[in-house]
Amino acid sequence: MKPLFKNVYNLDRKCYSQYRLTEEILMEHAAYEIGLEIKNRFRKGSKIGIFAGPGNNGADGITLGRILEGDYEIFLYTPLGVKSEIGKLQLERYREVGGRVYQWRKGEQLPDFDVVVDALFGSGLKRDLPKEIGCLVKSLNYLPAFKIACDIPTGIDVNGNLRPIGFRADLTVTMGAEKLALYSDFAKEYVGEIKVADLGVSFQKYREKTFYYRLECSDLQLPIRTKQNSHKRTYGHLGVVIGEKPGAGIIAAETAFNFGTGLVTGINLAGVQLPYEIIEGRGLDGFTALAVGMGLGNKGRQIGRELVRLAVEEEMPVVIDADLFYEPVIKELLNGKKVVLTPHPKEFAGMIETIWGEKLTPKEVQLRRFELVERFGEEYPDVVLLLKGANRLITYKRQLYIDPLGDVALAKGGSGDVLSGLIGGLLAQGYHPLKGAISGSLALSLAGRYTPNYGLTPKKLIKRLDELVERVSTDCN
Questions:
Q1: H or E segment to which residue 393 belongs
Q2: For residue 65, with 0-12 CB atoms within 10 Å meaning exposed, 13-18 middle and 19 or more buried, which class applies?
Q3: Cα–Cα–Cα angle for 460, 289, 217, nearest 5°?
Q4: Which of 181, 267, 298, 447 could form a disulfide with 464, with the two C-beta atoms 3.0–4.6 Å apart?
Q5: What is the pLDDT of residue 477?
Q6: pLDDT tens, 323-337?
Q7: What is the pTM of this model?
């Protein structure tokens, strides 16, 4: 996993005070790294449009213009002027090497650039973009050029939200370290490929302690069997509550069985025919973990409440999903030591109303994802929370982990039930709740990389679990 930071201001200041570097040295390195990406991808003489803002992000862009001037045809635009002292100095240097500054007017047709570099606003944005910049960003997005964002795409604020439009980058070269805002659900549409620019010192010298991490393929711990002298109970026994809408529970049960769990029992409240490999049962006897909530419905909630309450009292590992997030019992379950919660934003809003008495819409939850998950982690550090989304967030012991590997193909009914089965199956096999949530999330992400991306179904997802060893070796290297 890779460390993330809310911002890098303290890290930059350490470079100034401890390593005797200057703002100018860091800026030169930042611009050089972007220039290197351009030189490695585009032949000399290509048309490069650089759009620089009034602050230091814009100064990075101006410095880039000086570095590339002479080898490329540079079009530098400063639509809001240059206000920082370092920016003015860099602009003088750019002009000294023969660089020109161009004027942009709304409605004016821009040249046919090969590359567009967005250096308008960096990672400190806290307000809506000026209207004229919003219009410019919209125009830039329509251009067929390869698009590079300097530090973070313009329009993505410090919380990763749009203000109100964003630059759609093919590549984001972020400065010094990866920022949390780059991994919001909204930002996923805009950042493209992300690369980190070194600023003159090793990242190991640059970084400091953090509570935020980006998950990688290598963090996936598959339930590979290595012990030959074993039997089915060696690999756990998961109980799955199958409620009023039985398809959800059956999907979770089949997933767990296909992901290494030795035995899976369905507590069949719906009275439907279960798949032949799923045992039918009633109580909790013999289970090493429980999965509950998927498709419970109104009729199943009472029994679901009783079963999960008993499991938590016995300190049995439990994964909780879906309908139980609207139940008052969720508040007492948060005292459990081996509980994993997997809500989507609407379900998380329902749980927030129960535990904090605050009414939020799913949209408000999305806008405050990081804040709300962090708050939950502070108040309930012993519970693992996995908030679903384009980038899943996982918190435990006040640490925040982000899985950015999920694909849009997973936006189908039943994907969340597969996730519950993955996590439940790993819990049954003895995984720690955090490890189970992380590996379950990553397994879902990698199995969900499907072409065509509209054709994925839960059954296809489950089948693709067999390919994860090969997928990790090919997709992650």
A1: strand 392-396
A2: buried
A3: 50
A4: 447
A5: 64
A6: 999 999 999 999 999
A7: 0.95
